[in-house]
Design goal:
single chain, about 120 residues, mainly beta, about 0% helix, globular
């Protein structure tokens, strides 16, 4: 079992930046990949970024590539999402997720553990 807690969300103006953090606890040694997803009201949950727990592979949605950066600190059991050049379209609840398995980085059904989410609101 893995518990995930997100933090760092807030209200920013368009063009601003936020850094989200996700701290994992429990059986973290079995984590294969961690990812960030987001969901706006009335929309499907969508993939944002993912990072392999071992190795250096990262994955990004086309909509955020070049603006967002995912990183990790294994010693702190933490994954980060640095979000720059934020746009109103980025407004959503952001969720951290972890998987022990999976063959794809972007499919939310491949992630077994989820945090409660942190709200990001970008004003125009």
């Amino acid at each position: 079992q893995v518990q995930l807690v997100e933090s760092g969300g807030g209200l920013v103006q368009a063009g601003g930046s936020l850094r989200l953090s996700c701290v994992a606890s429990g059986r973290t040694f079995s984590i294969y990949r961690m990812g960030w997803f987001r969901q706006a009201p009335g929309k499907e949950r969508e993939f944002v970024a993912a990072i392999n727990w071992s190795g250096s592979s990262t994955y990004y949605a086309d909509s955020v590539k070049g603006r967002f950066t995912i990183s990790k600190d294994k010693a702190k059991n933490t994954v980060y999402l640095q979000m720059n050049s934020l746009q109103p379209e980025d407004t959503a609840a952001y969720y951290c997720a972890a998987t022990y398995f999976g063959r794809t980085s972007s499919n939310p059904r491949q992630y077994e553990y989820w945090g409660q989410g942190t709200q990001v609101t970008v004003s125009s």
